[in-house]
Amino acid sequence: MKKNHFIARRKIGGYLMLGVAILTLGSCAQDGFDNGERFTTVSGVKLESPSADSIVVTPDASGVKQTISWPVVFGAGGYIVSVYDVTTPDKPVAVDSIENKLVDGTAITLSRKEDTYYKFSIKSAANVKANNTAAEKNSEISYNTYTPTYKTIPDGTDLTQYFAAKALPADSTSIDLCFDLVEGGSYTMSGVITPGLNKITLRCTNKNKRPTVIFTGNAGFIMDAGLTLKNINIDCGTSTASFVSMNATPLIKNIVNKTYYFLKDKLNIQSCNIDKVNNYFVYDNKQVVYVENVVVNNCIVHLTPAATLDGVFYLNKGGNILSLTVSNSTFYETGSYDYKYFYQTSGRAKNISYASNTTTYVNSTFYNVCNAGQWGNYNGMAGQANSYWNMTDCIFAYCSPLGVANKFLAGRKTQPTATFKNNTYMQKGTNGVAFDNPTGYDDTGTDIKENPTFKNPDGADFTISNATQVNAKTGDPRWLPSAE
To answer: Which of 109, 144, 179 marks a domain boundary?
Structure first.
């Protein structure tokens, strides 16, 4: 093939200027050929597919797109490509419907997800005009979007002792130290983990075989820098410590006006089942700390407060969470005690000259949380033009009896920066169930006044069966009947 020059000489200069063109699947030919014309200086040959070693995967700056590129195979009539999400190996899913697609170019751009295993397959297609037959074999590559592993922690380890004895970099603010737990492993935590100013991720790279971490003492996580937990089952057991706390003696160097600590890293809790949280879920530890970003996604959190507590998320010393997002998750509460608020804070974004606050709950299920309390108490944030509130496609059952939408906006009616859609606000009624009247707060008219009919809430099975919520796909997606 090295002696063959399929592209006419008069086209070579223009082709090189194009480089590796990034193409979408619906586009016209963009590979240097005129209107699909195939020059026939290479003819009558059996083609080969691009070699696996020559295929390059490049994420974009946002991390939500990726480009897969390969070199030209002269004489090819295009390339038949497939891209699969193989995170669940026995259930591959074609990404962006790219399956046996004919691509008339040398690259495709498609969506990209974090912590995902992919497989890409490519075969050179026949060129009938040039009498070139298709390659016999596909070339394939497998790759993933996990951050590279820093260390793997052996099965059976006490994580508290491990981090206490581990010599970490003095300050890893520019990198994320990813500690892998063994799939299906068993770990303990005998006390709090305090990684200092190091950004750490504690994770398993197999979403289908999560390890289990059991708290055996007053265990939890102390946060001075970014913290990520992914794909772990955590049993908080008899620990009376908060699940995540700011440091009582902050190490954060970013201090504003000699008063406010500003943590510009993310608390990111993804795909975790967290059982028996007996204290605050996120707690400021009586420090004026602003946390830039807190995300809880695809998690189940079981709250069992050991006393009446002020909030599930509680930053009431004067700081707050600048962006709080709970998505695709379930929070449920059992036991004799309650939380006064789901999220309580007294800080204001303008204290640190920050553009805005955003509080978002989307596609999540909340059951018996703040069953005698309120959903929000924000003091300085409520009613502010730079505060945004988003509550969409959620199911609230027996939460905040004074009104979920009402207390979500801290009692401020007609909030112009609030977005609502397809929420269920169900309460206990005289003869069964009743529903909030959200008028003045959620005025969309989309609230669903029907019982979602959970399958077995006492057994923590919140699978819904009511057609209205099922058709609208509201609540935590794991509880949709099709997800069983």
So the answer is: 144
Is 199 inside any structural domain?
A: no
User: Cα separation of 82 and 84, whole Å?
Assistant: 7
Residue 90, domain CATH: 2.60.40.10
* Strands 65-69 vs 79-85: parallel, antiparallel or unpaired: unpaired
Edge-first strand order for the sheet with 65-69 is 56-59, 65-69, 107-111
pLDDT band at residue 264 under the 50/70/90 scheme:
confident
Q: Please write the tens of the pLDDT for every residue from 152-202.
A: 999 999 999 999 998 787 666 668 899 999 999 999 999 999 998 889 999
Coil/strand/helix, residue 131: coil
Q: Which two tokens stand for residue 51?
A: 């070699």
* pTM of the predicted structure, to 2 decimals: 0.84
Residues 294 and 441 in one domain: yes
C-alpha closest to that of 55 among 138, 160, 146, 174: 138
Q: Count of CB atoms within 10 A of residue 384's CB? A: 17
The answer to whether residues 288 and 261 touch, using CB atoms and an 8 Å cutoff, is yes
Q: What contacts 32, CB < 8 A, 6 or more positions away?
A: 7, 11, 14, 15, 18
Of 370, 304, 380, nearest to 343 by C-alpha is 370
Does 294 share its domain with 409?
A: yes
233 lies in some domain: no
- Taking the C-alpha atoms of residue 205 and residue 116, their distance in angstroms, rounded to an integer, is 9
- Hunting for tokens 């993310």 — which residue is that? 266
Query: Could you tell me the residue range of the domain that residue 47 belongs to?
Result: 9-144
State which of 101, 116, 144 marks the end of a domain.
144
In one-letter notation, the amino acid at residue 300 is: I
